[in-house]
Amino acid sequence: MSAKPPKIMILYASYGDGHYRASKAIEACFQSKGIEEIVLLDLLAEAHPVLNELTKFIYHSSFKMLPSVYGAAYEMTKDLPPEAALLRALNSFGTSKLKEAMFRHEPDLFIHTFPQMALPDILKKSRLSLPVVNIITDFDVHARWIHPGVDRYYVATEDMRTEMMRRGVSGDRVLASGIPLRSDFHHVREAAPVFRERLDPAKKTVLLMAGAYGVMQGNKDICKMLLEGGKYQVLAVCGRNEELYKDLSSVYGEHPDFHAFGFVNEIALLMQASDCIITKPGGITLSEALACRLPLFLYRPVPGQELNNARYLQHKGIAPIVYDADSLRQEIEALLLDGDRLSNVKAKMESLRKPEAAEAIVNDIMATWFQPEGKTPDSIGSADPRLVIH
Length: 390
Known about the structure:
Layout: E1 8-12, H1 18-32, E2 38-42, H2 43-47, H3 49-61, H4 67-77, H5 85-91, H6 95-105, E3 109-112, H7 119-125, E4 132-135, E5 152-155, H8 158-166, E6 174-176, H9 193-196, E7 204-209, H10 219-228, E8 232-237, H11 242-252, E9 258-261, H12 267-272, E10 276-279, H13 283-291, E11 296-299, H14 305-315, E12 321-322, H15 325-336, H16 339-349, H17 357-369
Parallel strand pairs: 1-2, 1-3, 3-4, 4-5, 5-6, 7-8, 7-10, 8-9, 10-11, 11-12
Helix pairs in contact: 1-17, 10-15
């Protein structure tokens, strides 16, 4: 193909924050290579704003009310074939808006970081042949991600790649790239002096992350448990949940070992300053913690992709699943006070650490579809050497 920089369209959704963060990581990586024409489209928000807000409300509420209902729906639809009527109905949302955006921006390649597969059918009906790639942002494969019109899948692990092949996807269409992260997760930086001065080097630092919308339950009990013994200091990230921030601050704000934050962009600095993290198991947060080699404790995962993410890491011996504050304290002390066990967990993390996933994905896209004439893929930047297409 010609050396003209390609135009890229990235389709995401604003359920939680992970799909957007993955999209921004990919966008930044393209921009670092001089590719500036990138369109980020929150398809459902643009096409059906009322429906989008309603489904977001239901999704976030599911963490508090009847999470088993969401989990049951997730599991019941997990292995549906691409031609299933339900999937075809779901994929039809946003068709008109996407078609309009497609012809307005004329992108050369499409990237999904959320499984809304309206695009392949639009391309087929329009008799257009343009590459479509999916970046799966969890450690679990759901049927909504799989479509015969997708040219390449980027997944978190080799186990996911094997699962995709079991489901009939050709191995040469799947790369175990990892989940894309911002560049500050593979460039370790020293915390700012003002931040370091707030921490006691004699105490273990526990990062508590309630999610972008602060929906993780039991935060007050966790803080009470950690602070009452005087052995830990807590960095509590409440996301966009102002009520949670105010609630925790009102109870523990005067405690010298407690530090509350709202929505944080510099999460890499907090992770790099911490000894462990307690979190809901979203795919992006798990990948960020793995990139920082930060021991994980997965608290009350909600049935669905988050529970499956948690089960995967627990099966790998990397992170325990816990459901109450007392069990959490026991798990934290058992790990942080046992140097050999801690070293073993961090060693297991290495097999899943892929902090440069965004670079690997963008390099593979460029080498596959936008290779300048007369140049080999190696001359325009090869993918991570750990990525192998069998």
